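<context>
A single protein, sequence plus fold
<sample>
Here is the protein in question:
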Amino acid sequence: MSTILLTGPTGFIGKEVLKQLLQTDHTIMVLIRTEEKYIRLQHELQLTHHNVQPIIGDLTLPEFGLSECDKQLVLKSDSIIHTAGPMDITIDKDTAKQVFLDAANQLMNLCEEIIKQKPFAHFLHVVGYKSPFNEQNIDLTSDPYSLSSRFPEEGPYEQMKFAADLLIRQRARALNIPLSVINPSTVIGDRRTGENEQLSALGLFIHLIRNDLVKAIPSQQGEWLPLVSKSDLAQLIVKLVNQPHPISETYYLLAEKESTPDIEQLFLQMFHELRKDTPQLKVSVSQLRQDWPSQASSVGFPKETLSFIISDDRPRTSVQKVYEEPLTVESILPHIIADVDYRLSHHTPIPTTVIRGRRGNLATLEASHRGTGSPIILLHGLWGGADSWLPLIDQLSTTHPIIAPDLPGFGRSPYHHQSSPIAGTITAVVEMIQNINEPVTLIGHSLGSIIATHANQHIPDSIQQLIHIHPQLDIEEEQTVNFSTLPHEEEHLAEFLVSTGFFSQATDIPVPFLAHLVADLHSPRIRHTTRDMLHELQYQKERFPLQLPPSSKVTIVSNVPTEKLNTPAHLYLPFSNSAPITHPQETANLITDIMTSKLPL
């Protein structure tokens, strides 16, 4: 097994590489700027592996600013995986030179020192699909520090990445080091969950669309923005580092062009998933390139972005020799777009007690500590998403696995685009439960109760217990609500929430919850979905009655006195309709008592 030095372990690519390296027997040293960053990384990845060693250093400092002790550890490396570098195409020339070219030079100086003491097995360098260099065209006499003049059409970001690529190739050849250069296309999020922490690249387009800054759709037949998931990139890197006899080779990693939308289709899909009206205007990519100053305002993005849109493909033979999995992004794009849309509104990291996941087509929050009982699924109400259950998850996860999905169009889940918001949501929840392959306890709050009731009608054998928390019960004439506009200022939104009966008074609304909801409603996707749900609940509620047939597996928890209800088992919870949010401890205790049959019903 190898002793690997990994640069950029907290970055979008490096972190995914580290996650997958943890499944191997390699010894891993991670070059990281501070001990505090390493502690955060430990919590995030739940690092308990004895084979991970932090090396406190900075690629931009002379000799990385290493202590003598850490330098001696680094000199034991026999492989280096270099993933470090910002993903910001707008950085200036001096910064780009420092983080790409100077850092590459220092890494090769390190390799030279290692070789004086022991054999060196493999250098792996992540560059990008636009780099013009390969094993056949390296000019050993070219000065990388003077290379930028050869690529005047590129910005400093790409110029310095090219220069770093050339420098490492030159020095690796001089040192006779096997060098794998991995040239991915634009990297997007996790292939399974859609998690996409990187908010540049595709995130830039989504930000512009959210803010009505894209007035025309870029369009031209054959022009595309090549994409690849970080999961595929990390898997390829691990396969390469596991090779017993590595060779020097360039690996272009792009999803298949045939299964990737062209640039017009990509923008149309982003508008569709964000639930925004599509501009009628189109502008050709060639026109943008030829007449950028007059066309820039129509698309909103910086000029440097244009060079990432290409018409040709890249050779794939080298990748196909070592990586057999199909490279596609089509099915994950709706999840990527929804995830980025959510992150543009919410910047607070989730607690380390939960992890992000995906079940069926729904994004989930799941307790990182899995209990041993049957799974509990928590369906949120109209206001908020899976995040609204966070205070309860810790309380319930000691005995049961907890799964809190974002319903379609909320949180990080893409919208289902069916004609009925509620019917499409019911279908998505049913499919999610069927994928779990064991009976579950289904807990619905408010709107979630309606979804839970109808899911139970579809798959009763898959739901062993059904708990409704403050279901929407027709015991009084409901007040008509004006939902045509949803306020997103805190004061007006608080008034709106009281008018809908979700809270008794504005002072009952927790400040963090209100701030979270305001941020939610800045997403056109969530705002549109919330408005559609309100409309259907108010004007077509007869299509989705909250049917509560007598059943030993159904329990209702509400603030309606028992004598006013003719329902199955009922427990009185003397709080507003938002009890899981305002009184999570009491709600969790009641759920636990119901599930352990401690309460007489």
Observations:
- The first helix runs from residue 12 to 21.
- The chain is about 35% helix and 15% strand.
- Residues 346-595 form a domain with the Rossmann fold fold (CATH 3.40.50.1820).
- The longest strand covers residues 463-469.
